[in-house]
Amino acid sequence: MPAEKITDISRARRLCRRLGITLTAGNRPMRFGPSSRPATNAGHLIERLIGRHGESHVWAVLAALTQADTDRSDLTSAMIGAVSDLFLANPDWGQRLGTFMDALDPVDLGTLRKMAGRGPGLDGGPPRQRILIAAYLQQLLEPAMRSSGAAAAE
What we know:
This protein has about 150 residues and is mostly helical. Helices cover about 60% and strands about 5% of the residues. It starts with 9 loop residues before the first helix and ends with a helix.
């Protein structure tokens, strides 16, 4: 089955505008830097995620990546997809967004992205950065999210 072709990314544009994220063309290379405004070229992924999981899910993903004390310009499709995957696998993480952002603050997402780019691929192919980033983040954030979840349940 061929991949779905998305041409209308108006919902992604509106959501990015609300969050102060500059949405660039998908074929435009991303430039990363600590003083950069939040920007992404992942409009088609954002649109697809909105269609599959709803705008509130994607808002939480993008808010986590832009409001935490992380590199706000590191909004690659792999990073957005990885955080989305984490929220889908751990629904309470997306519901405890403030706690998630606090746990994410000390994580250097740029270094994590570079590690995933050098990671192993399947059968000698390129690494699947989204999967590797999600696995790294799960490993790094799970202890903080588990302990804060237990404290909230008491």
